[in-house]
Amino acid sequence: MNGFSVVGFNWESSPAATELEIVVMEWLSKLLQLPKSFSFSSDSGGGVMHSTTCEAFVCTLLAAKEKILDPIGRDKAEKLVVYCSDQTHFSFQKSVKIVGINPKNIRHVLTSKSTNFRLTPQSLDEMIKRDVEVGLVPMYLCATVGTTSTTAVDPLGPLSEVASAYNMWVHVDAAYAGSACICPEFRHFLNGVEGASSFSFNAHKWLLTNLACCCLWVKDKFVLTKPLTTNSEYLKNKATDSGHVVDYKDWQISLTRRFQPLKLWMVLRSYGETGLREVIRKHVKMAKDFEELVTLDKRFELIVPRYFSVVCFRVCPYVIGKKYDYDPEANEFNEKLLESVNATGCAYMTHSVVGGVYFIRFAVGATLTEDRHVAMAWELVKNQATSMLYTPTPKL
Ligand code: PLP
After folding, report:
1. Among 157, 224, 261, 300, which residue has the least CB neighbours within 10 Å?
2. Neighbours of 344 (CB within 10 A)
């Protein structure tokens, strides 16, 4: 990419990079079957490549803030409230702080196992109502498709309905799971996205693209670019003045930008939509196989149903003589199990905690992963657990 020596500032300095980005974002939006309102072919929609979801959060939060304060006055900034769930990625909270929202006005709506850690419209509505009653101003909702801990999917349609009653901006963060939605059988996870103001996913997570590449679409590019537009004398040019070109510098934080679309263009052209779907399906199938192996061994349990290519599991508390789901010793046992699996150097898994329960996450997402690796990973987990369970603790 550097070989082309693209000077990624405005359209005039990098017309090829800009035009290719538009093409690639349109291709992707078709692959994801995003509503036409997010496309450049609509009156005000369009897509842009950022590096990270955090940047997408910052830019859309800023746009939402400006939009809501314009009619009511900047002195109301302290009253603005943003909403997310207790499963939303931490980068959202960071972004909220960056755009100067009072940290006391970030609402992490609680989720629970009974709804598989989804954000429910009822609990959101209740929280918003309480805020409105005390004179606060609801501004922004971050809904997630594929939460980081358990890949929970928030119900986009019903949540957008609640938010739209308060004229709020709704952003859909599908950083990990968005890629899966290029397959028709997984597209339903995005149902309701038409009610959102913006949508983003990280192509570097599961669409075979090198770090870092976050694709963001908005319904209203004029609202997005309003707080981000700069108009320095030295960048003035006829193309920009004509209003017919896209100056991506006004869609992001910095002026300078990399030739990001080239790497996604290469991926799309090399694999094609059929090839990409095959990769996703293969990964999901391997995760499903692992999930089946877990469920066949009664000593283990799934923490949540598997939707994509992440399996959340643990050794059941009863196996170590414990009764309660969130027993600290059960947590400790699973933590030690994960440590021992990773210490072998043969596989690497991660963990999380939801509802006080520590669990292990097995994720498939690399191009070189094969069925035999999955089988080996399960053998490893099973054998480590067996040896931990049947190794007598030395008597002192
Ligand atoms: N959102 C979700 C659901 C994620 O899983 C992650 C990262 O794991 C992020 C956001 C953060 O992404 P980024 O590092 O691109 O800001």
Report:
1. 157
2. 11
